[in-house]
Amino acid sequence: MEIAILGTGCPKCRQTAEVVRQAVEQAGVDATIHKVEDIKEIMKFKVMTTPAVAFDGQVRISGKVPTVDEVKALLAHDGKA
Amino acid sequence: MSEGCEKNPAGGSGPGASCCEGAGPGEASVTTAGVDPRTTAKYFGSGVLALGIWWLVYQGLFPFAKWFTFSLLTLTPGSHLTSAVQFFVFEAPKILMLLTLVVFAVGVVRSFFTPERARRILAGKRESAGNILAALLGVVTPFCSCSAVPLFIGFVTSGVPLGVTFSFLVSAPMVNEIALVLLYGLFGWKIAAVYAGTGLGIAMISGWVIGRLGMESHVEEWVYAAPAGGDEEGEVLNVSWRDRVHFGLDSVRDIIGKVWPYVLAGIAVGAGIHGYVPENFMAGIMGSGAWWSVPLAVVIGIPMYSNAASIIPVVQALLGKGAALGTVLAFMMSVIGLSLPEMIILRKVLKVRLIATFAGVVGMGILIVGYLFNVLL
């Protein structure tokens, strides 16, 4: 899975990246994480609030720092689908 | 409800260091619909109970402060120290309790709003009515200034007029529930109402003026070419009451956890002034007699970057030392409503002339409010 962290580099965005990294590690999912910091690139995901997290180009969280459990639940949910 | 964030030039620490306090419920990830109605009833029950306890404690604060000052510390009535201590012991828990209640209530209210929903309401609205609506939505929509750019793009690309977008962007940080509670607690409901009313007024009118000026060509060209953002309203509409309560509690933990030292500092300054007679040494430079004090306050305040809670001790000190209310209000509004970090962020989507116009128009509005109050009071 391709996970994108969308955010222009504010503290909450870095926090989000860290949470996602932990969740991926704990869930043992095979995923690559990359940060998208350029605003033009972020807008391609059609979000209005940052930080946001997208799985395979699909925005799953936006406007808040998720908890590790939330991200794990989403990973499990999307993995089954 | 806005904290400047990215690459915060004001030095990292303090409550401003992280943004998005109480950011929205976001896209409710895994759906939580279908919660047992009994759970909802239970939440309402404990809510009523909590409110009852809150009220009882609140009522007990004044007797407690008296008991603490006179019986426990056995201070003699009438001295400066006594009245300062009594003021602090009464005001500190009072304001923290008020703040907790209001932040919780605002958190619950905000769980009904998202930027996507605000945009849907505002898209295609005409100016004037749109400006009024945008200023009101700016207050209740969870928003942080690190989202200012995506939000701006999301608004203008889906047909929200430029001026209406600005009304939203001005009112969101300017009309702040923490400042409102603190002003109410420390100076009474009249000053709090004046602050909220004029803050909304400035947001409505300055957005309208920017719309009239027809500055669409001063938005960076690529913005209008960008795809409209945030087209999914998502599962946000399926938020249960349990989630709303949790959202309220989260914002209490986030916000109160960050601002309490500033609140206590503000009250301590207030207590000091309360106990020790003010010297009025500010009256000469910031009193209503000095015409240039209002523009000076605005010019100093605009680039400054601070959150509402940490500016209140300063407000308290200035007022206590004889500065005029209008001048102090103008200073406070320009500090929390406009900031250099926000303008730097907006530079990504706006050309310099539009940013300057934005700061100029809003600054002018604050200036008028400042003069108005110095003349009226």
CATH architecture of chain A: 3-Layer(aba) Sandwich
* β-strand amount of chain B: under 5%
- Intertermini distance of chain A: 13 Å
Estimated helix fraction of chain A = 40-55%
Radius of gyration of chain B: 22 Å
Strand order of the largest sheet of chain A: 2-1-3-4
| Approximate shape of chain A | globular
Order of secondary-structure elements of chain A: EHEHEEH
Q: What summary fits the major beta sheet of chain A?
A: 4 strands, mixed
- Main β-sheet description of chain B: none
Radius of gyration of chain A from the CA trace?
11 Å
Helix/strand class of chain A: alpha+beta
Mean pLDDT over the full residue set of chain A: 86
How many domains make up the coordinates of chain A?
A: 1
Total count of helical runs of at least 4 residues of chain A: 3
The low-pLDDT segments of chain A are none
Count of DSSP strands of chain A:
4
CATH homology-level superfamily of chain A: Glutaredoxin
Strand percentage of chain A lies at: 15-25%
The residue fraction in helices of chain B comes out at 55-70%
This entry's quaternary arrangement is heterodimer
Provide an overview of this structure.
The complex is a heterodimer of chains A (81) and B (377). With 81 residues, chain A is of the alpha+beta class. Chain A has one domain: 3-Layer(aba) Sandwich (Glutaredoxin). In chain A, 43% of the residues lie in helices and 23% in strands. In chain A, strands 2-1-3-4 form a 4-stranded mixed beta sheet. Chain A starts with a strand and ends with a helix. The model of chain A has no long low-confidence stretch (mean pLDDT 86). Chain B is mostly helical and 377 residues long. Chain B has one domain (37-231, 240-376). Helix content of chain B is 68%, strand content 0%. Chain B has 16 helices and no strands. Chain B has helices spanning 37-72, 80-110, 115-122, 129-140, 148-157, 162-174, 177-187, 189-212, 221-225, 241-275, 283-286, 293-301, 308-320, 325-337, 340-346, 352-376. In chain B, helix 8 runs antiparallel to helix 16 (352-376). The two termini of chain B are 29 Å apart. Residues 1-33 and 233-237 of chain B have low confidence and may be disordered. Classes of the chains: A alpha+beta (81), B mainly alpha (377). Chains A and B meet through helix 1, helix 2, strand 4 and helix 3 of A and helix 3 and helix 5 of B.
